[in-house]
Amino acid sequence: MARRKLVYEGKAKILYEGPEPGTLVQYFKDDATAFNAEKKATIEGKGVLNNRLSEFFMTGLNNIGVPTHFLKRINMREQLIRAVEIVPLEVIVRNFAAGSMAKRLGLEEGMQLPRPIIEFSYKDDALGDPLVPEEYIIAFGWATQQDLDDIVALALRVNDYMAGVMYGVGIKLVDFKIEVGRVWDNEFMRLIVADEISPDSCRLWDIQTGQKLDKDVFRRDLGNLTDAYTEVARRLKVLPGNGHATPDKPTLIN
Ligand code: UDP
Question: Are 101 and 94 contacting, i.e. CB atoms less than 8 angstroms apart?
Answer without folding.
Answer: yes
